Amino acid sequence: MAIQMIILNGGSSSGKSRIVRCLQAELPDPWLTFGCDSFVDSLPARMREADDDGIVIAADGGVSVGEDFLALEAAWREGIVAMVRAGARVVIDDVFLGGAASQQRWRKALGEAADLPVLWVGVRCDSAVAADREAARGDRVPGMAAAQADVVHEGVVYDLEVDTSHTESVACARAIAAHVHRR
Amino acid sequence: MAIQMIILNGGSSSGKSRIVRCLQAELPDPWLTFGCDSFVDSLPARMREADDDGIVIAADGGVSVGEDFLALEAAWREGIVAMVRAGARVVIDDVFLGGAASQQRWRKALGEAADLPVLWVGVRCDSAVAADREAARGDRVPGMAAAQADVVHEGVVYDLEVDTSHTESVACARAIAAHVHRR
Amino acid sequence: MAIQMIILNGGSSSGKSRIVRCLQAELPDPWLTFGCDSFVDSLPARMREADDDGIVIAADGGVSVGEDFLALEAAWREGIVAMVRAGARVVIDDVFLGGAASQQRWRKALGEAADLPVLWVGVRCDSAVAADREAARGDRVPGMAAAQADVVHEGVVYDLEVDTSHTESVACARAIAAHVHRR
Amino acid sequence: MAIQMIILNGGSSSGKSRIVRCLQAELPDPWLTFGCDSFVDSLPARMREADDDGIVIAADGGVSVGEDFLALEAAWREGIVAMVRAGARVVIDDVFLGGAASQQRWRKALGEAADLPVLWVGVRCDSAVAADREAARGDRVPGMAAAQADVVHEGVVYDLEVDTSHTESVACARAIAAHVHRR
After folding, report:
1. pLDDT, one tens digit for every residue, chain C (183 residues)
2. β-sheet with D90-94: strand ranges across
3. Closest to B136 (Cβ–Cβ): which among C22, C129, C135?
4. ipTM score of the complex?
5. Does residue D37 carry a catalytic annotation?
6. Which residues of chain A are within 8 Å of residue D133 when distances are taken between CB atoms?
7. D30 touching B, CB under 8 A?
8. Is B179 near chain C, with CB under 8 Å?
9. Cα–Cα distance between A135 and D20 in angstroms, integer?
């Protein structure tokens, strides 16, 4: 059965966004993309700032989220799954801050949809390389990349893993696209 | 029954985005926002360019969309409605290029959900004022504002209309918020 | 003698950027534009954050700048004036945090260039209107608009003043362009 | 004599911007940065579009510039050099579309300033790697990277060259910073 949903998980500055853009270019069918960044953009500004029910990025790059954030994110996940059920192909660009528990949240949104074929992709990047890339971007709180590099993968089960430490985004995207075509 | 979804419709440069940001600030509960801009951002880059199954903005500001675009947009609409059913409050920032037909597409996605209380808001702006604002933004194809100013409202039925020609976004947002609270 | 430099001064969210884009569109000759935003973008990221020799925006919207910032800004001003002397027409989009003292800094950079014809433009906006627009933008620290609305104009001498409280950016730009042509 | 100006030259998607941000972070003194992107942003919108006296990017990624563009760019270069003379340290992020002729234009702006110590840095990137990165960015006209990869270096003389094909931006920046300190 053809894959209709690809969920990429990786830490900040691991290179997920570039892989997603390449994937959209590589895959012949049109795929939509959503992710934690677009979700956060959809929130009221106050929840992206000092509001403790929203999302807070500490000076050391640590990220914490509140009750309202989690409730809205759960509804958002259900909406994304509904788009896929309605026929859209979707690539998700996510950061599993809770590791296996975050994957479990997606599984819950997918429901009994053992019928809905998802490709789980881990996007790895050496902690030091990700930290250097974070510095090079210049628009991120220093420390996020290192803090998230390993934690987000703890206990997560993948169909495929790519590593951007020494591989360009395009090559990673091609590996993922090959996997999609094979199925 | 409390309103859970607000659908704003207005032409390019009519001031919808500013109203949405103000609304999110004015409303005490957290509301997510999505719209045609965020939908277009989720598409593969090639569909935002010269691809005739995507979206094309002509040199005169005319906008045309293809089959793939319409199919994905329909699935996206169903996903948004599913988010609302899952408990999220959502403000939509849309441009009804098809006028009444576009409203009908949202009604179809809402389904028999006469149960799901939606507030339909028309965002009007004098064609000349919108064209001037379009010029002032500097990042839009000249002509879109004037081309869309009236067409997008043809045959559309609203619960509330605001006019940004001589009223600031904050005042428009407050009028909408008052309507939400009243219900 | 033809005007070669236009210096706009106004508080945050007074609408200067929109006026500048309109001015560039209205004026038949090509004018370059620079300003405090593009200057700040040219700084090392650390000077836009917590560095006390850079620029700090407090939680209440107050802005303070350090020694390094002032020294670099002085050199930047001299460079801009040199561009004008080399033949470029330039529109400056500035916020005179020091009021008359800030104007004096530009005069110093202009040197004895009583020969270099500058048009000084004050961009006024009612404090409450600017605060509402600041909220509508959603990407500014609340309080900057109100804090700066009047202070930036204290003791400053203008050739022309515009008020965006009830006038669209395009109309303000046209008034300025008319002044440029007249000379 | 201490270096006060660093001029980086490389093709589109060769990784110059990331190197510049890293350099600003690595160097203990505050360095300003300007470049062809910030120059183009300062132009009237019409010169970034179909205006043949401005800058035009063809469908195949070819870039051509007109008379007005060249005249304004020459004045801009003189202004940048004046900033350096006034005491600012400046990193330039440029694309020498004309190869050696472009370097000559900077030398002309620097004048007899054999006194003004400049570090010329070539930023190389394999054409295929740059093309892949261009695709991954998703916001560039495909073809620019490949078209510029070699042409921009033709006949240009450097103090230092870095290659981003297999080296991270941070490492390249450190090599440049080491060179600055040594002098």
Report:
1. 789 999 999 999 999 999 999 999 999 999 999 999 999 999 998 898 766 688 888 888 888 889 999 999 999 999 999 999 999 999 999 999 999 999 999 999 998 656 788 999 999 999 999 998 888 777 777 889 999 999 999 999 999 999 999 999 999 999 999 999 886
2. D32-35, D90-94, D5-9, D118-124, D160-163
3. C22
4. 0.94
5. yes
6. 168-170
7. no
8. no
9. 11
